[in-house]
Write the structure tokens for this entry.
Amino acid sequence: VVNVPQVFPGTDKASLVKRIRLGREKLAAKLARDPGAPNIIIKPRLWIAVAGVRYFIEPDALVAADADPYYGVFEIKSYPDRDGKSDPGKMAQARRQAAVGVLALREATERLAPGQGEALVPPSVDLVLARRGYRQPTLRANETVVAEVTTVANAMDQAPRDLADVERLLGPGVTLETAPAIEALPANYRADCLSFCAMAKPCRREATAAGDPAILGTAYPELLPNTSLGRAEELLTGKGAAPRDAHEQRLADEMQAAIRAWKKAV
Amino acid sequence: MADHVDLALRVEARRRGRAVRATATQVRRIQPHARIVTFVGMAGEHATIHAAHIARLGRAPKFFFCPDPRDRDVHAQMLCRVADELQRYFDWCEAHDEMPQILVTSPAAVGKLDSLADRLPYAPVDRSAPQAIQARARQLRAFGSQLAFFTRYAPRSGQQVLMGATDLLSQHFITGQDDQEDVHLGAQLAWVAPPRGKDVLAAAELAERSPMGANTDPEFDTDVLVDAVAAHNSARRNGAPAPRISALAAAVGAALEPVTLAMLENVQRAVDIVRGLGLPELPGLDGFVDRDLQAFVDHRAYIAGGGRIPLSDRPKGAAFEYLSREDAEEQWAAALLHGDPVHRALARLRGTIISGKVSNVVSRPDGRRTIHTVEITSTQTLLRVRRGDDLCWMDDSRLRFVVTEASRARNVTIRMEITKGMRAVGVPSVGTTLDLADGAPNLDGVTSQRVQLAVRLRAMPATHDAQPLAPVPPIPKPRVDPIRAVEALR
């Protein structure tokens, strides 16, 4: 077992660089089938490049038995494994986090053995959660993270284009440190943004101001294609411009019938 | 899945700047003796409670807290006090044949109680520990087994033993915001009873800043709680005098008390709002209350008889639980459809109720019986009906039909045969308007289904049997070439 932060403690730049080197050495040893290669590397410092910028990540551990050809990603979480009752949001977050670890390990492997990253690091990870009802760990071995790896990889591919768009919208020299700069970017609000994104509330305000049907829930943009909530209100009350096409006419008829029936019943 | 009816009501709520009523009846019984339980855990510490308020509806609350739930002994002591309080209530309910009812803020709080009920029944009893500690562990085990009834029963539709206040409000109101935002009690209350002269969206956003689930606000943790807990722990570690340690523990409690108290006040407010509507109770709600009470009594008897809560269901137990939940969902949907005028009116628009005028009735003898065929014409634009559907008349569910034909020209014409009730209720005459739907709620029907399931599960299904699967018989070759058959249709 190699505990990387224990070998090089401290968070100064020199220690962090040494941690990267140590991790790389151990990965290379495993690739060379060195019998002395560790079975567990705790908190190795890896990095992934997004739009030319390095982002450092530290998976909880990389694990391989002597007979295994290479390491797999290992994530530890404190919450209990409650089978079907496990919090789906937390489980999704853990899988996404592990997927980033898979991509970083693939990149690190590619640098050591070009062309072998994907073959040696499959999209499956080991998750350790607390055993339900006890203060003991339980293992979810070989948890598949194919979808998460694909999503994260797509997002990373998309990032340079998105960043170019962001730069174009912001203008030269403007950073995202001020509210007006953030507000200059278009929002793509969905209700589930609230559960994980720090920008959800400003985006929701923007979506509300624009009358985006997404603020009512994920199903509503389909019911109101190219129609704002303000327009839906006009169609409901019959005030404002008359229905412009057959779709608006049908929408107005259905909503008005619903409100008539509701008023009568309530 | 949302449809145009939901859309219309949500847009109407936004237009009015307040939630609109979703029912014309009170669809949840609120027990006068119900207990409001609000609590917060410590961040990162699952199945712990840092502070809690418990109150009988409309009465002064009691506050419970421990300075640091990571100190297991102190945490267990506090949980025992909470357990005492609730255990007395459960005992009272059983003695008085009353359905117990626990009201919490939201599904997050139900989830937290569920985590607790997962752990407590297995609280380890250290036989080498002092008697007092062993007794505490046993008390927590017993309490966990009682609590497990509420959390395991909570997923059943229409249950009223463990209710989130957000669920109570959602049953009676439709807001102009997303369902996920409705699970914040403060935001939902802002829609249901918006503050005078204030924009409802601003009020809801402001309300969202206060925690209303089962955790404290992370900013509050950083700014207030961390320092208070650290000061207490440090004083204790350094052997500070007892009054000093008590004062620092009280400071932790004083920081947490307003958080759980605000939650409790909002739960009470939600209850007052629903009661204040003055709506008649949903017909048939008594049956659901009796079902819940019976389940509670059965669980108590099971635990008293030495029964244990399984950590995970076995396949057979899971199949029975699944059946119960499915049945509960069907019965609750039927109860709302048959008993609440708003649900009924909106179901007509959605096409789940067939509403039409009898246009023709034909009675013809068939051996010793008479077959009555009724034809109805409906102007509904959306209808969900197929040949073979079993329907009942909503005004008297003894009269039942089976659909033999459904056709749409300008209107929809549905031909049906009466299968039951032709003598007791009578054959409807031409010109009568009928509302037809799936069967009325039948809370006893699950018993026969359970018997049937027990027979089916006497032998372990192949999917759960260690034996290899029997070889699949070869699929017989089709007599007709399907491509030719399709082409012949052209």
